[in-house]
Amino acid sequence: MRLNLKKVKMMDQVWQLRGFRGIEYVTKNAIPGKSVYGERLFDIDGVEYREWQHKKSKLASGMINNLRIPSIQPGASVLYLGASAGTTVSHVSDIVGDDGVIYAIEFAPRPGRDLYTLSDDRDNIVPIIADARYPQQYSHLVDQVDIVYCDVAQPTQSQLFLDNASAFLRNQGQGYIAIKTKSISQTEHPKQIFATQTKMLEAGGFKTIKTTSIGKIHRDHYVYLGTWTR
């Protein structure tokens, strides 16, 4: 089987993998020989790449719908809210490289332990066990960042996203949030919920770049990308 790589426009260090059915994207493995969450590894011309499973990543799912985040690049600083065990964090780690940093916030102790284990191998990940609703809890650990990424499924997800952007996101930085609409309301239509949340984000300081539904992969989810203007 002949495998070919195509660089993804506006996403540095991310490639589309041609010739292997069912795989959309890969990143260059920062720790060759080691898989993080059971993803497949591929050696192409002497370089190892990791399968980026979009069914396990809201970021990869957004990319399938042509949503790109150019601020996630080598050397970037990222505040990641809702890091869980580090599936998507590990790919962001591959991208930002040794000169970048990811402040990975996770509240639950069990995935938090996995996150700490991941950081043992990847020095650019700073695991922080804290509640993302209260950025003051970790303000002494987090510097100003280029992007805030949020994947926290709860009713106040947009507000906590705004609070963290206000605390840590540089002016003209970017914010990306995966909104699980059913965590906000069980009765309203998901499309209407997302429209309301988008207006809230814009009123709070973001200028919308792109929005899209990822509901075919992650049920009742939409993603939002904006520029911080405060």
Give a structural overview.
- With 230 residues, the chain is α/β, with parallel strands linked by helices.
- It has two domains: 51 residues, Phosphorylase Kinase, domain 1 (2-Layer Sandwich), CATH 3.30.200.20; 171 residues, 3-Layer(aba) Sandwich (Rossmann fold).
- Helices cover 25% and strands 32% of the residues.
- The protein contains five helices and twelve strands.
- The strands form two sheets. The protein has a seven-stranded mixed β-sheet with strand order 8-7-6-9-10-12-11, sandwiched between helices. Strands 1-2-3-5-4 form a five-stranded antiparallel β-sheet, with helices on one face.
- Helix 3 links the parallel strand 7 and strand 8.
- The radius of gyration is 17 Å and the shape is globular.
Topology (elements, then pairings):
Layout lengths: L3 E4 L6 E5 L6 E4 L12 E4 L2 E6 L5 H7 L12 E5 L5 H10 L4 E6 L2 H13 L3 E5 L15 E6 L6 H12 E12 L9 H15 L1 E8 L7 E8 L2
Parallel strand pairs: 6-7, 6-9, 7-8, 9-10
Antiparallel strand pairs: 1-2, 2-3, 3-5, 4-5, 10-12, 11-12
The total number of structural domains is: 2
Gross morphology is globular
Largest sheet features: 7 strands, mixed
How many DSSP H or I helices? 5
Radius of gyration: 17 Å
Q: Helicity level, as a percent range?
A: 10-25%
Distance between the termini: 50 Å
Strand content: 25-35%
Helices and strands: which structural class?
A: alpha/beta
Low-confidence stretches: none
User: Which fold name corresponds to the CATH topology of the largest domain?
Assistant: Rossmann fold
Mean pLDDT: 94
The H/E string reads EEEEEHEHEHEEHEHEE
What top-tier CATH class of the largest domain fits best? Alpha Beta
- Spatial strand sequence of the major β-sheet: 8-7-6-9-10-12-11
